[in-house]
Design a protein that fits this description.
Order of helices and strands: HEEEHEHE
Bound molecules: adenosine monophosphate, zinc ion
Number of domains: 1
CATH architecture: 2-Layer Sandwich
Shape: globular
Radius of gyration: 14 Å
CATH topology: HIT family, subunit A
Structural class: alpha+beta
Distance between the termini: 34 Å
Number of strands: 5
Strand order of the largest sheet: 1-2-3-5-4
Number of helices: 3
Largest sheet: 5 strands, antiparallel
Strand content: 15-25%
């Protein structure tokens, strides 16, 4: 499958790793929107949260969600952070492998929700 984030998980494209376990990989966003901007992804290719609607992928999603606070702690985000996932065209998703942005390291601007 021609997927940028699968290639990152496989080591075919370099990345700045922040965290890794059996199911999850986290790395620095190449174009950061905050002092800390990390992407947390499942190692398994799952396109988006709609693709998580079956049980097998739901389990993968749970692993990612459990990893997020660990990643935040590793990044010393003791004063809080924001987690964003963009889904589909309207959500502005550019990479079709589900990912959660962790943003922090400053008081974040523009709250949409
Ligand atoms: P999204 O727009 O929600 O699909 O997020 C995709 C994110 O992937 C963007 O924030 C990009 O900056 C980031 N990105 C794209 N290519 C790379 C890469 N090679 N390494 C790290 N982050 C990347
Ligand atoms: Zn993928």
């Amino acid at each position: 499958m021609d997927c940028l984030f699968c290639k990152i998980v496989n080591g075919d494209i370099p990345s700045a790793k922040v965290y890794e376990d059996e199911y999850v990989y986290a790395f620095k966003d190449i174009n950061p929107n905050a002092p800390v901007h990390v992407l947390v992804i499942p190692k398994k290719h799952v396109a988006d949260s709609i693709d998580c609607a079956n049980c097998e992928n739901a389990e993968v999603l749970t692993k990612v969600l459990l990893a997020i606070p660990k990643v935040a702690a590793l990044c010393n985000l003791t004063n809080g952070y924001r987690v964003i996932t963009n889904v589909g065209e309207d959500g502005g998703q550019t990479v079709k492998h589900i990912h959660f942005h962790i943003l922090g390291g400053e008081k974040l601007p523009v709250k949409l929700a």
